[in-house]
Design a protein that fits this description.
The complex is a heterodimer of chains A (106) and B (560). Chain A is α+β, with helices and mostly antiparallel strands and 106 residues long. Chain A has 2 helices and 5 strands. The N and C termini of chain B lie far apart (61 Å). Chain B folds into 4 domains: 105 residues, Sulfite Reductase Hemoprotein, domain 2, CATH 3.90.480; 158 residues, 2-Layer Sandwich (Sulfite Reductase Hemoprotein, domain 1), CATH 3.30.413; 93 residues, Sulfite Reductase Hemoprotein, domain 2; 147 residues, Sulfite Reductase Hemoprotein, domain 1 (2-Layer Sandwich). In chain B, strands 16, 17, 18, 19, 20 and 21 form a 6-stranded mixed beta sheet that branches. Chain B has a 5-stranded antiparallel beta sheet with strand order 1-2-5-4-13. Chain B has a 5-stranded antiparallel beta sheet with strand order 3-14-15-12-11. Classes of the chains: A alpha+beta (106), B alpha+beta (560).
């Protein structure tokens, strides 16, 4: 039986320099998951992924791939524990940084 | 400890310069990610979930106070103020930027450290018993031979592209504190009937998706033949190890496929061909390396120190810490101190830069400037005078490093898991934190006694779950985290692999499940002297299964 469920997807990658998770907004890369553009159509998602390749070549980003997202009243949500953690840009527990408050400026 | 000679210093400097060039070429677009990836991995640099991760080698876990201060400096300057000690006696930084890594490597080189061969299909950083040189029961200091192996294996041209990674571990006691038989080659230094020193080879052990206890393939290899026998072993592996399937590429699969006897026959055949070559170890070279590991200038101290005994009597917290976190030293009047990096509710193995600096200061004041990292993600101050212990303990308390839980249920091994790692299926650290909080009472932990709990966030088993008395493995079920429990594993001289208890538990159930396992043990044990593992071996898994799933069923129906 054919599966007629609409699959919503986003393009994600990592900044080359810092490795932070980033999301394609349709015109730029954002570290905010909420700003990621959602594609309901596979061909459009594939085209967006192909577009990301130009940024790979420009050495801005690494490892772009598509992720499935779930739509709720507030917008797109990650569908796996892995993507939830990536989107939060941090570990899920309080890290003990000691007296550290920021990288020492050059 | 070992100090770099001109050769070591030059090659580390050159390698740092090479990697700086590689990073510059990557950023300039001359190298693609596919081309750069193997180069960064050879320098210990991974790209993880949120950032790059740099793994720094600590050969056989030995650190000087000066090196520890440098690690603290790097944590502050280039990371987020902390580092993570691993089950390979290494340290990892979780947040460096790619363009900062060359500078970090230059800083490391200043204190004779590097990140070479901490990743990739090569011979990895050699590990050893963290009580090397100080344990009363050892036949020899394994660091001497670990250093010989480090020199032989570093940038070894023939073994730079093995079928898969290769880990070597050394011990020199009957008591195995280093999980020796879970390595590609585990070496135990032994004496033969004539009293000569040599090596027993346990080849083809490992964890991961196919856990295997390394079989004894050669009970005695003479000292002078150590490198030729290692070379012959690696040659047979390099030639016949599978390169077509990553899951079957480790030497353990080859040893199992050929059978230990046939594998050994092939190694022996190769060894006879090369044993009298340049690989024969010259005595003078071993003597040169041995001098670096000469004992420090110990004082002649009394065995009984009244002030120390009085403090133990008057301060039960101090007495508890002494019992749990200190061990006999081979020299009278000294004790080996374990610093637990598992304070209640903390991330196992994590240490802040402030704590690193304090440990370095304590090492200088009380322990001849020496520190060790253990495979259980703790630190050791190897030589502390009994009379200094109370004062030192107070200083450790001030920075939350005085948890009295070594080898207890709170002394949890946990890999970074899904909070950091690209390979993980589930989180490990928050599970460890919840369990640690559940068993936060040090008196309760002491009553439970020795209980090793190991957590891995995926089947690669960096958290040694197969050999935990209680093992927890994180699995992914449709994008959600579940946890499979194994019981009855051990990484010590009584090594065994854990057996699966039953269906996996959810993130919210796993702490209750662990508590039910522990409560079952307390009900079943013949007395406090019977350790968890001994009770399990006596009763088998069934009573645990019955109790744990029974109590879970009750909780689930109460919640409905």
């Amino acid at each position: 039986m054919a599966n007629d469920r609409t699959v919503h997807q986003m393009v994600t990658a990592q900044w080359l320099l810092g490795g932070e998770s980033i999301y394609w907004t349709g015109s730029a890369w954002s570290e905010s998951f909420a700003e990621g553009k959602v594609y309901a159509d596979q061909a459009a998602a594939d085209a967006a992924l192909a577009e990301a390749d130009a940024f790979v070549k420009q050495r801005k980003i690494v490892g772009p791939y598509l992720i499935e997202v779930e739509m709720d009243a507030t917008g797109p949500q990650p569908t796996s524990a892995r993507e939830r953690i990536r989107a939060a840009h941090n570990a899920t527990f309080a890290i003990d940084h000691g007296s550290w408050s920021g990288r020492i400026a050059d | 400890m070992y100090r770099y000679d001109q050769f070591d210093a030059t090659f580390v400097r050159e390698r740092t310069a090479q990697f700086s060039g590689q990073v510059a070429r990557r950023l300039a677009g001359e190298l693609t990610e596919e081309e750069f990836r193997p180069l960064r991995l050879k320098n210990g640099l991974y790209l993880q979930l949120h950032a790059y991760m740099l793994r720094v080698a600590i050969p056989y876990g030995e650190l000087s106070s000066q090196q520890m201060r440098k690690l603290a400096y790097i944590a502050r300057r280039y990371d987020k103020g902390y580092g993570h000690f691993t089950t390979r006696q290494n340290i990892q930084y979780n947040w460096p930027r790619l363009d900062d890594v060359p500078a970090i490597l230059a800083h490391l080189a200043e204190v004779e450290m590097h990140a070479i061969q901490t990743s990739g299909n090569c011979i990895r950083n050699v590990t050893a018993d963290h009580f090397a040189g100080i344990a009363a029961d050892e036949v020899e200091d394994p660091r001497i031979w670990a250093e010989v192996i480090r020199q032989w294996s570093t940038l070894h041209p023939e073994f730079s592209y093995l079928p898969r990674k290769f880990k070597i571990c050394l011990i020199a006691s009957e008591h195995d504190r280093a999980a020796m038989r879970t390595h590609d080659i585990g070496l135990r230094i032994v004496r033969n009937a004539k009293g000569e020193l040599g090596f027993a080879f346990y080849t083809g052990g490992g964890q991961g998706r196919t856990p295997i206890i390394g079989p004894l393939v050669k009970d005695f290899v003479a000292q002078e033949d150590l490198l030729s026998y290692l070379d012959a072993t690696l040659r047979v592996y390099n030639m016949h190890g599978r390169r077509d399937n990553i899951y079957k590429a480790r030497i353990k699969i080859l040893v199992q496929a050929l059978g230990a006897e046939e594998f050994t026959r092939q190694v022996d055949e190769e060894w006879l061909r090369i044993k009298d070559s340049v690989l024969k170890l010259p005595e003078a070279e071993v003597a040169r390396i041995r001098r670096y590991f000469a004992p420090p200038d110990y004082e002649k101290l009394p065995v009984y120190v009244e002030s120390f005994e009085d403090k133990k009597l008057s301060d039960p917290d101090f007495a508890r810490w002494i019992r749990a976190n200190t061990h006999d030293h081979k020299v009278d009047g000294y004790r080996i101190v374990s610093i637990s990096l598992k304070p209640v509710g903390a991330a196992p193995g994590d240490i802040t830069a402030d704590q690193m600096d304090l440990v370095a200061d304590l090492a200088d004041t009380y322990s001849f400037g020496e520190i060790r990292a253990t495979h259980r993600q703790n630190l050791i101050l190897p030589h502390v005078r009994q009379q200094d212990l109370f004062e030192m303990w107070q200083k450790l308390q001030g920075v939350k490093l005085a948890e009295p839980n070594i080898d207890f249920v709170g002394d949890i091994i946990a890999c970074p898991g899904l909070d950091y790692c690209n390979l993980a299926n589930a989180r490990s650290i928050p599970v460890a934190q919840r369990i640690s909080r559940r068993f936060s009472d040090p008196k309760r932990q002491a009553e439970i006694g020795e209980l090793r709990l190991n957590i891995s966030g995926c089947i690669n088993a960096c958290g040694h779950h197969h050999v935990g008395h209680i093992g927890i493995l994180g699995v992914d079920k449709k994008g959600e985290e579940f946890y499979q429990v194994t019981l009855g594993g051990s990484s010590a001289e009584d090594i065994s692999l854990g057996k699966i208890l039953g269906p996996a538990f959810s993130y919210d159930e796993i702490t209750d499940a662990v508590e039910a396992v522990v409560d079952t043990y307390l009900d079943l044990r013949t007395g406090p002297a019977e350790r968890f593992i001994d009770t399990y071996r006596r009763t088998g898994i069934d009573p645990f299964k019955e109790k744990v799933y029974g109590s879970l069923k009750e909780r689930r129906s109460a919640a409905e």
